[in-house]
Amino acid sequence: MATPMRPELAEAARMLLDQMGITPEDLLQAPGVRSQVPTFSEYVPVVLAALGDGARRTYGNYLRKVVDRWGDRRLDEITPTEVETLMRQLQGEAVRRRNSRGGSSTGEHVIAALRCVYRRAVADRLIADADDPARKVAKPRRPTSQRIALPDERLGELVVAAGTGGQDPELDALIVRFHIETACRRGGLLGLRPMDLDVQQCLAMLREKGGTYRWQPVSPTLMTFLLHHVHERGAAPDQQLLRYLDGRPVTRRRYDGLFERLGRELPWVAAQGVSAHWLRHTTLTWVERVYGYGVALAFAGHAESPNDTGTTARYVKATLQEIATALAGLTGEPNPLALPEKVTEAE
Known about the structure:
With 347 residues, the chain is mainly α. The chain has two domains: 40-136, DNA polymerase, domain 1, CATH 1.10.150; 152-342, hpI Integrase, Chain A (Orthogonal Bundle). Helices cover 52% and strands 4% of the residues. The protein has helices at 7-20, 24-28, 40-50, 53-70, 80-93, 104-123, 152-164, 169-182, 186-190, 220-233, 253-265, 267-272, 276-291, 293-299, 320-331; strands at 197-198, 203-208, 212-217. A three-stranded antiparallel beta sheet has the order 1-2-3. A hairpin with a 3-residue loop joins strand 2 (203-208) and strand 3 (212-217). Helix 7 (152-164) packs antiparallel against helix 8 (169-182). The longest helix is centred in the N-terminal third of the chain and has 20 residues, at 104-123.
């Protein structure tokens, strides 16, 4: 008769198997028989189908390049050295733009995309966690961002140029004003729907990266422009608000065309690679200087971020009324939610 295994030995064995990514079913397989690990061509479409829209846009292009090179290879055949080699190759192939930073962004996204694939493969028990090659390759060091807050005179030039040139200056002016007032990311405006507007309280619901949702105050003037845009261009309540003249929904490419045009009219825009994200920097810098760090944190939609100053961020959360007060100071317009006694006139 076999001697019963002591409980402490059984628990130690279970913990060791968990760390190795081995299940009891794996141990029951015949010696030499191994479950088939999929190829990149087989598994990448599975991963992409499980991702959200934002992650699919971010990783999709890089994963297609991975499939082009490694499509017939199994996930467990790739070594960390091959991962790093691929990263260097794709960095070298990256398009060189005026604001390029040596391909560091490409390298970072390649590693992040492969980690996404292997993390899911580990979760699906296709490979062991210890066999993940992407996790063993460091991402390139991210260079310091060159974005800065635009001086008042430069911001004024940009606003005027957006609203007086191009084929659709009304749309361009609306895009620029919305980003200045809300400091939102590009996806926040592109995802805005007529049903996301609270007209009475001058609020817009922003849906941004990471599946975050937040109400952001806007000025009465901007709300009027938004409602006029909806009326003139026919956006349905549950469809994208921002539309071209012919009623088609605006895409991310509109931003590229807008800032290319602004770069032709304002050489400093092209020279510095100014984009909509610079408007976010500009507004948040002003809010922080005038109303403090806590209000700027909430204005940016970072109030719940785990990356912001650790524990301190939990104690400096601003209210919606304080955000509206900062907006009133920024625009010089009253806001239904602002605290009148604390409104600071814009200089």
